[in-house]
Design brief:
single chain; 149 residues; alpha+beta; Lipocalin; 9-stranded antiparallel sheet; 3 helices; 9 strands; 25% helix; 40% strand; globular
Length: 149
């Protein structure tokens, strides 16, 4: 099939747009649930911040951020406190609601990370999974990036 020169750019644009959309939303719900995810990076999409190194936190091990899904329940640790709530997922869409946490006071850098984490988690709108990694995204280009534990 021969495409005229006039329509080549349009065809190319449509082809690339379709390809990018297919790649952008790789979200297998089966990989999301019944797994524990450990936060590796968070923050703005174009300048993510590495999660705290648990070995460097005081006491050792604090600072680890986890996320688990079971049924419609979500729970984990925000680096300081335990949290729990409900989530919903449809296709690549994602939302967390009714989050509650314990109220332990931790060192400042852990609390800063925990607050940023919870803000982004509650604003997450989409997710993608690939190669044992989970990425939650907000509508304003903030992300949470996890590895499967």
């Amino acid at each position: 099939m021969k495409i005229s020169r006039l329509f080549r750019p349009v065809f190319y644009f449509l082809f690339m747009s379709t390809l990018l959309l297919a790649m952008a939303c790789n979200c297998d719900p089966a990989t999301l649930v019944n797994n524990t995810w450990v936060l590796t990076d968070y923050g703005p999409e174009n300048a993510t911040i590495p999660a705290l190194d648990p070995a460097a936190a005081t006491p050792p091990g604090n600072g680890v951020v986890t996320l688990s899904f079971n049924g419609n329940k979500v729970n984990g640790k925000d680096g300081c406190n335990t949290y729990f709530g409900v989530f919903s997922q449809s296709g690549c869409s994602f939302s967390v609601d009714s989050i509650n946490t314990t109220l332990i006071l931790c060192q400042q850098d852990i609390m800063t990370q925990a607050n940023a984490y919870m803000t982004i988690l509650q604003a997450a709108e989409t997710f993608s999974t690939k190669n044992d990694k989970l990425k939650l995204c907000t509508g304003d280009d903030r992300v949470l990036i996890y590895r499967k534990q």
